Amino acid sequence: MKDMRVRLKFTEEVLATASGDPDTFEEYIASMSPDQSTRDEEIAAINAENAIDKRMTVFPRDNDGKPFIYNYQIKGFFKDACSMLSRIGRKSGEESKKKNAVNESSKITAYKKVIDGLIFVEPRQIIFIFDGDVGTCQRPLRAQTMQGERVALSNSETVPAGTIIEFIITMLDPAHEMAVREWLDYGKLRGLAQWRNSGKGTFVWEEVG
After folding, report:
1. Under 8 Å between Cβ of 156 and 56
2. What is the pTM of this model?
3. Which of 24, 44, 45, 60 fits a disulfide with 19 by CB distance 3.0 to 4.6 angstroms?
4. Whether residue 27 has pLDDT greater than 80
């Protein structure tokens, strides 16, 4: 087993992902988690009454009112990073083969099961550390429908560039350490949370402790 304590420093603002509408959020959490106690905890962490607009996506808050992200969002980032990086050097339609691997991600088969069952992140609530207040980001969303293009405004809470988070990554198999480092390096190109395709949520990292 191998533990790594890491610190992420965001180079762009991070957008919240949880719905500010408690009914919508409860329906989403209910679809994702069979554990009633966990579901109730996550719903309680969304202070929807304080959201300016219930259509806004918001950050959950701890008991002191500090915004945070859940540990499973880090694992979700790992899955996204591994999926993308494993495509490097692979021909269209070709499955990844260990013998032809060009990076650590390409060596991992059934990567989702590996990340779910062998790589863990703690604490469950990872607090954002930053100066100032939570901000907002509003942007247009475009979609092609049967009636033509439709445009709607999306609004999200944000924490600013320069925000820091710290957490511990536990790898039951130390052989996965190089892959984890590779995924963390990928964060400077493609980050966490919403609108990451535009560069939001990108970060640099360091090992601490």
Report:
1. yes
2. 0.81
3. 24
4. no
Q: How far apart are CA 32 and CA 100, in angstroms?
A: 36
Q: How many helices (H) and strands (E) does the chain have?
A: 5, 11
> At 70, phi and psi to the nearest 5?
-85, 155
**Encoded tokens for 183:** 């995924």
Alpha helix (H) ranges present in 1-118? 22-32, 36-44, 71-85, 111-118
d(CA 144, CA 155): 20
- Domains annotated for the chain, with CATH where assigned, are 2-16+66-207 (3.30.70), 18-58 (no CATH)
Residue with tokens 């990844």, as numbered in its chain? 96
pLDDT digits (tens, 9 = 90+) for 102-151: 899 999 999 999 999 999 999 999 999 999 999 999 876 666 777 777 65
